[in-house]
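Data deposition worksheet. Section B asks for the primary sequence of the deposited chain exactly as it was used as input, without tags or linkers unless they were present during the calculation. Section C holds the resulting structure in token form. Section D is free text for depositor observations; keep each observation to a single sentence. Incomplete worksheets are returned to the depositor.
Section A, Depositor: J.P.
Section B:
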Amino acid sequence: MARCPWAARPGPMRDYHDTEWGVPVAGRGVDRETAYFERLTLEAFQSGLSWSTILAKRPAFREAFAGFDVARVAAYGDEERAALLADARIVRNRAKVDATIVNAGAVLAMREEGPEVFADLLESFRPEETPAPRVVAEVPTTSPGSLALSKALKKRGLTFVGPTTMHALMEATGLVDTHLVACHRRGVGRAGSR
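Section C:
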């Protein structure tokens, strides 16, 4: 079965590719918000690291960040921050930990405008057309949409949301399809993306 090269070998990366990567976030309200917040946070932590590292640590991230409950993470103070920085099960990067807490507060502020504001904002940057890479060298790492999303989130007070990280988020959540054209998962997240 044809797959993107990064998912060629059996194991967690292939499982992630075949079941989750590129699949739109489902649900409504807080559940949808939580799913997007988790993905945004993990993509930020992945910056400069391999995705396989983050994927292996995902259960620990979920535990450390209260299941990515925005209200709980936004309330983290010095004690929780110190515990996170001492937790060897996750990536102990002060800037990324601080960004997660700041971002939770920003998403919580959006929730006051309505339960779907954060998720709807992210999804509003879904492009009309998606790339059609035939080889890995043709897969973009940024896009006009990821640049615009980055700017919009920064205006809302989020940090660690640069255009490359936002492009990765858009790929992971099916907002843009960068599965290679021959990949069996191409089009799973979008009708007519082939």
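Section D:
The chain has a mean pLDDT of 95.
Residues 99 and 146 are 18 Å apart (CA to CA).
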